[in-house]
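Q: Hi! First time asking for a complex rather than a single chain. Here are the components, and I think there are two in total. Is that enough to go on?
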Amino acid sequence: MNSSWPVLSTLIFFPLVASVLLVFVRKDLAVRQVSLAVAFIEILLALPLLKFKLGHADFQFVELHQWIPHWNINYHLGVDGISFLMILLTVFLLPFCVLCSWSYIGQRIKEFHICMMLMTSACIGVFVALDFVLFYIFWEIMLIPMFLLIAVWGGPERKYASLKFFIYTLAGSTLLLVAIVAFYVAGGTFSIPELIAQDFSFKFQAWTFLAMALAFAIKVPMFPFHTWLPAAHVQAPTAGSVLLASVLLKMGTYGFIRFCLSMTPEASVYFAPLMIGISIASIIYGGLVALGQNDMKKLIAYSSVAHMGFVTLGIFVLNVRGLEGAVIQMINHGITTGALFMLVGAIYERSHSREIKDNMGIAKFLPAYIFFFGLFSLSSLAFPGTNSFVGEALVLIGAFEHSLIIGLLAVPGALLAAAYMLRLLQKLAYGEPVVEKAKEWKDLNFREWAYLLPLGVLVLYIGLAPTLALKTMTASIEKVLGYIENNEVVTDNERQDLSSFLEQRQLSLKDQNEESEAD
Amino acid sequence: MLNFNPQLIIPELYMVGLLCILFVQSISDKLKDKIHWVPYAAFAGAFIALFSSGQSDIMFYNSYKIDGLSQFFKFVIFLGLAICSANAIRNRSLGKANHADYFFFMFMSSFGLLLLSSTVELFTIYISLELASYSLYILLPLRNNDPRAVEGAIKYALFGAVATAIGLYGISYIIAGHHTTYIHELATMGWSFSENPMALVGLGMFLLAFVYKLALFPFHFWAADVYQGASNETAAFAATLPKLGAIVILVRLMAFAPGVEVKTLLAIFAALSMTIGNLAALNQKDIKRLLGYSSVSHAGFIMLGLVAGGSYGLAAASYYGLVYMIMNLTIFWVITKLSDSGRNVYVSDLRGLYKSSPIMAFVLAVAAFALVGLPPTAGFTGKLFLLNSAWGEGFYWLVIVAALNTALAIYYYLNLVRHAYTLDEVVPAKIIISPAGKSIALALALGVLYLGILPHNIFSLLVRASSYLTF
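A: Yes, that's all I need. Here is the structure of the assembled complex.
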């Protein structure tokens, strides 16, 4: 099925072409204006995606061309309900990234915007690639601009942070490459839909699952592999942090859903307890460490670890509610954490410090700033009515469906989020101001309103009316779970587990109905 | 029978013509510095080789074979020679030495390599190898006032002599085992240890002579010293072209599908070569020394395709040979242009390169990322082909070692890029690079990207060529 207008290719290659054009733009202001225009045109180019058919589980907007026939490598693109939302998020965030670096980035402005365009291309490529090699190519390309964003425009520790980021993520993905090669030799193709349709032996699945899971777990990042994240976030410029938090981290969880669950379903079931354990560890650990941070960016970075823990938890409880929650939480985290990083960047431009103590007690002087900070903080701690509440509630429902103990273990994570976010918000808004200069700071200007307001609207929109977002993904999620359930009846041992698992599910079905009525 | 057909060996005859001109120039005081035509002539040679592709015949009493593989390698050798000679045209480290001499030996060595890519008889192979090597032994110490150049050259010559002696000794075993030295006859015979142990041991020893050229572990000790000692321009030549000669012979010999013993041994060497090369490169300050160790690790990667064998594995190895040559010539080009007065370049010399020459910094980044094996560069595509073929033949452990080595290698290559792009506190000396130097650098970088993104045409040609080799 080849669609007439190659929407996805356009989305990938337009920023690439634009970045080449940017090389020839001379003035700094013109570079920013052209980038902004490019970002908005990119959104316009994404409009044909709205023809996306809801309720279809198959890939849409498929493009398929031969590339290296000897190894059966194709240029194969397409979106389903899961990647659809991720592309929208990526495209939607680009103009805000340009806007939030308008005055933050003061040197090598042209190169900065070129890096951002390349990032966008690669990120969209990762989400739409349906060929394993193509996927890997985009997955790796993305490292280069991100490395430069941190290494060139980063804070004082940028050398350490950028090297750590690059080496950590590259080391993780080398084994992913081995898994890709193994899949090719075992399945005779690099095509993702074809590989999903094939059955592999359990042993093969287990090894490939581990190889892929390592790469994705580092990207997410999950608990023992998270150490690159705070360093990278703290050193990266605002737009780099936003891209990192909103899009890059999602690639890991996207990979779990697209590859681990779909291609190695038996192994996913087998290793699910391990992954759930790590997820809960991430939630609790991220929350506890965030509680003790004095640097605002570090605090938000650790909160990311905790939030992404919820996402992976939702994925590996392996039921509809959990996965729906996970995907919607991926979007939410992108919006909320992206916005929080933008806010930290905005206050940094005023105070030149990211320490909480240097920015205390500013509610009196910057009411609009604190309004937005409050809104996104509440969203971050999953306050009812905001987007994260929907996601976290769904994940928790999924967790309780899976097992009572796991659900109970995850709940303290939600409480911790309230503790560290409210502590930050309280100090920022009403703390004893340390710096006298705070009086002279100006409240949000038009540019800052322009990128915070849409994100704020989105927070409330998804929080109050999540149905549309849920509808786009449900069909695809059910398809993914279909692979799992087909393969779930493996051994007698597991069959027993399954029966108890089904009992729990029936018990919790009542809650589910109540919840949907409440919606 | 003799079957002499001059049409088929036009590239070789062309090379002989060039050698004659260079010889005349080198003995004439008037002409010895007028060597600016050399790169153009070499480049024209690439086109001649290109037009002579598609032919196939066997001549000189079955010892010289024109086929897809040989013509491909002749094209690549001429191309590499064109870049190397363009690079060396302003070789400042030669001092007042005779420039025509320098190019005479460079071309003579390449002539040996041209012959090597067509020879299909063990003694002819041996003689071509010696022709290529002896010229290189003379070329390496040609560097003004640097004792390290002599040290490197002596090391290379001594070790090289031992390696070729072992190879020659191996031939005697092969003759004893199989009573022939013709590859097309050898190919039909059994190469397992149980059938004919003597021939297999002989083949193993003969392979060592070429493995030495490739700088594979345990014959890798010369690489770093030779690269460091030789002038930048000579190192660029010595690092790339002789390896192509070694690869083409190894491709022909591994097409026998030799016994599992030789393959396993080579696979172990490959794994050690990758790991040791990368570990040793981690802490190098001199870029040429770093590249020396990196070539050790790349030799290991090439072995991946060779031990896998089959038309795909051999094609992957040949493809990686081309990729390896282009990547290294690209990075050597940058180094040579950065080095004022021909001294060695250290990693710290790259600081602030982005400010003084953004184009060179970009080219360096492309080359470094290609050497790591990051997409969309040629390094990635070449490695992917190698990994695919090795995994398909069941060398799982080797593929995993290779993949992990990518993670090892990233540190020192990335360090080059990081120095070039960041650390701009140090104001660099102004580097003046001619427009021609910049445009060739860009062309090389585009070549690296082209081979990475559109490998299909060349690779299918190689698959066809190597499918004739395997039986």
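A: The longest strand of chain A covers residues 60-68. Let me know if you'd like any chain examined more closely.
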